[in-house]
Amino acid sequence: MPRIMPANKNEETDFPIPQHCDILRRAAEAGGLLVDAMINTSDGSKDNSSSVPLMVVENGCGSPCIDLRQVSSELAAAAKDADLIVLEGMGRALHTNFNAQFKCEALKLAMVKNQRLAEKLIKGNIYDCVCRYEPAS
């Protein structure tokens, strides 16, 4: 099963798909775990490696806050059999998906950068960090 990295199509609100791909390519060129994943997705071969391919897929959202109730059909199809969702960042993990329940395991990671939100969601303070694991529902 591939690893999927959702990304915005437009750069007005977040860094877009081409920038994601460029960053991943440069990271793969530096070596490490991304090398085989990037080679597999670029040449279509999976025979020479046991690594899992990494795909950048348009999320269908127009903002950095990814509301997983409304995603592109491409992302929905690619993530259909996902066994883990990792949501990183205040917009993705807190604003739009904090109380979302998924059919697979979920990990929600964020730093709270708003005092009102910190008090409301976690009964905490600004700059507190959230690491919330949820088993499949």
Task: Supply the key terms.
137 residues; 2 domains; three-stranded mixed sheet; globular; 5 strands; 31% helix; 5 helices; ARMT1-like_metal-bd; ARMT-1-like_metal-bd_sf; Damage-control phosphatase ARMT1-like metal-binding domain-containing protein; alpha/beta; 20% strand; two-stranded parallel ribbon
List the helices and strands and how they pair.
Blueprint: E1 3-7, H1 17-29, H2 34-43, E2 54-58, H3 73-78, E3 84-88, H4 90-95, E4 105-111, H5 115-122, E5 129-134
Parallel strand pairs: 1-2, 3-4
Antiparallel strand pairs: 4-5
Helix pairs in contact: 1-2
Description of the structure:
The chain is an alpha/beta fold and 137 residues long. The chain has 2 domains: 1-81, no CATH class; 83-137, no CATH class. The protein is 31% helix and 20% strand. It is built from 5 helices and 5 strands, in the order βααβαβαβαβ. The strands form 2 sheets. The chain has a 3-stranded mixed sheet. A two-stranded parallel ribbon has the order 1-2. Strand 3, helix 4 and strand 4 (105-111) form a beta-alpha-beta unit. Helix 1 packs across helix 2 (34-43). The longest helix has 13 residues, at 17-29. The chain starts with a strand and ends with a strand. 17% of the residues are buried.
The tally of beta strands, per DSSP, is 5
Strand content: 15-25%
Biggest sheet overview? 3 strands, mixed
For the record, give the distance between the C-alpha atoms at the N and C termini, rounded to a whole number: 20 Å
List the helices and strands in order.
EHHEHEHEHE
Averaged pLDDT, please?
84
What's the Cα radius of gyration? Answer: 16 Å
Number of domains: 2
As a percent range, the share of helical residues equals: 25-40%
- Low-pLDDT segments, ≥5 res: 40-49
Q: Oligomerization state of this entry?
A: single chain
Strand ordering within the main sheet: 3-4-5
Give the overall form.
Answer: globular
Put simply, the count of helices is 5
* Helix/strand/pairing category: alpha/beta
